[in-house]
Design brief:
CATH class of the largest domain: Alpha Beta
CATH architecture of the largest domain: 3-Layer(aba) Sandwich
Number of domains: 2
Oligomer: single chain
Number of strands: 10
Shape: globular
Bound molecules: D-glutamic acid
Order of helices and strands: EHEHEHEHEHHEHHEHEHEHE
Largest sheet: 6 strands, parallel
Strand order of the largest sheet: 4-3-1-2-9-10
């Protein structure tokens, strides 16, 4: 069906999810909206995150999307259940696909979760993991300095590695074998996280899993597009320049980018 897929995030982190959807579903058109003006969401109160997530949702609904992906862990943690109940179209969040992949991966049934303060305090991953498997042991950790590190663009160098190392220190003596990257920004830090955690810890990137879930839902509902899509559209509530740079140079995606106003 030739309607776009809507993808929302607090900023540019959700581009890791959009990239995966585009890779796995090349016939689909993406309308991406990043609330860059009000990013980060990770330290905001739940009510505020819910309100902002609704504003983004309404904006894309008005553009006739056929499915909504909430590509932000904090927004999924606080607003997914509410939005999913109300919307007339399927809604996919990033928490459940990540939890499911971790359960598939773990051998010793001890899973780590890292995310923003909001995501970790919401316990959304604990609920999702225990809802699927009651005997999974979970060690969660809020990593407030990692999303700003990605935003700063310093994705190389000893200083950045040290920031990641310090943030992950509490895992030093915790025998997890699987770690959920419960924040859309963290896949950008994968090489550092891998280095700190060691080869024996599998990293779960929610983006890949969310794209897979999106693909399955569209297939089951008969909503997959069969034709070449029109150009993707990427909107930012703040300056569209950063978004444009990442989309063009980082993701190498041809797209229309523009700044929009939600309210
Ligand atoms: N997109 C957010 C998340 O996945 C991270 C950035 C923020 O704090 O807004 O939780």
């Amino acid at each position: 069906m030739r309607q776009p897929i809507g993808v929302i995030d607090s900023g540019v982190g959700g581009l890791t999810v959009a990239r995966e959807i585009i890779r796995q579903l090349p016939n689909e058109q993406i309308l991406y909206l990043g609330d860059t003006r009000r990013c980060p969401y990770g330290s905001r109160p739940a009510e505020e995150v819910i309100e902002y997530t609704w504003e983004m949702t309404r904006y894309l609904l008005a553009k006739d999307i056929k499915l909504l992906v909430i590509a932000c862990n904090t927004a999924t943690a606080f607003a997914f259940n509410e939005i999913r109940k109300v919307l007339p179209i399927p809604v996919v969040g990033v928490v459940y696909p990540g939890a499911r992949a971790a359960i598939k991966m773990t051998r010793n049934r001890h899973v780590g979760v890292i995310g923003t303060v909001g995501t970790i305090s919401s316990k959304a991953y604990n609920q999702a993991l225990h809802g699927l498997h009651p005997y999974i042991k979970i060690t969660s950790l809020a990593c407030p300095s990692l999303a700003p590190l990605v935003e700063s663009g310093k994705l190389e160098g000893e200083q950045s590695l040290q920031i990641v190392r310090n943030e992950l220190l509490p895992f030093r003596d915790v025998p997890i074998d699987t770690l959920i990257l419960g924040c859309t920004h963290y896949p950008f830090l994968k090489p550092f996280i891998k280095k700190v955690m060691g080869e024996h810890v599998q990293l779960i990137d929610s983006g890949e899993e969310t794209a897979r879930e999106t693909s399955t839902i569209l297939y089951l509902k008969g909503l997959l597009s069969q034709e070449n899509p029109p150009p993707h559209e990427f909107y930012a509530t703040g300056s569209a320049q950063v978004l444009e740079r990442i989309v063009r140079d980082g993701l190498k995606i041809k797209a229309i980018t523009r700044t929009v106003q939600l309210v």
